Amino acid sequence: MTSVPDRHAPAAQAEIKIHKKKYFSASRTWDVWNKLTARDVFALTQMPHFEGIVLFAIQFPFPFSFPHPCLTPCQHTHTHDAKVRCVLPGQHVYFHQNHPIQYVYLCGLVQQFELAPGAGAARYALLMLDDGSGRAIEVKIPRRYGLELTTGEVYPSNTLIDNLNVYDTWGLASLFINNKPIHVGTVLKIKGTIAEFRERQVELKRVFLVKDTNEEVAFWAGVAKHRRDVLSRPWVLSSADMKFIDDQVDSETRKEVERKNARRAKYKVNMERKAENDEKRQRQAEKKRQLFDAGALKGSDVIKAPWE
To answer: Which terminal residue of the chain, N or C, has fewer Cβ atoms less than 10 Å from its own Cβ?
Structure first.
């Protein structure tokens, strides 16, 4: 386990423990949509061995730009002495204290909407969400593009979110949710994963229209409840809980090894059976050939050319 200082904890609890990833399934924040504010998302931290893998970092001594090969997770700037930093997809686990978080649930109004700049416009649209927490966060909307649009398959929408469509009319982007146009000021609830491009953003997975103020108030009540009941104190995992999870992991590992061994044994039996059948067919073919050749005239198996 890794110990890190908790800036929000009292002095008596200044050290909290980051548990191994195999224990994350026992956390109340891991496999759930965590109701947070945009400021909370920016405040989440990353710990060593849980972030993406840095592929390369190059500094150019002059203004330099190029089409990025991947909007996520490659990050770069186009200013003087530009640094290009490309990060391979890794674990991308974020933490609130020692609570592991991968899914976030936000509510806010649409502040801005546009297509991603340059070549990225065919792949992504960008929505700026303001929830009044003091920080607005960029929401990345993945679009269907390339082969996905030429295979002839029918999709519910032209994005990877079934109820959301993005249209581009002469460079002017428009957004429709449940076939209703979305304007600046529309209040949305969004679910997504955390991404990084220049700064932290959310990659959209689900989106919902907020019907009225009561629904919005209910959401913020849920945010307060999640913070009070879960996020306000460090995640504590007892030795008994860890042993129980270890036993489960060991049991699942043994079962997986047994399944692999059974598949290998079955494959070996099938290959041996196939070899036997091939050999049997060859023997039968040889017997037929010998039977057909038994009454043939000598030399009839040789066909000479006219000039021979």
So the answer is: C
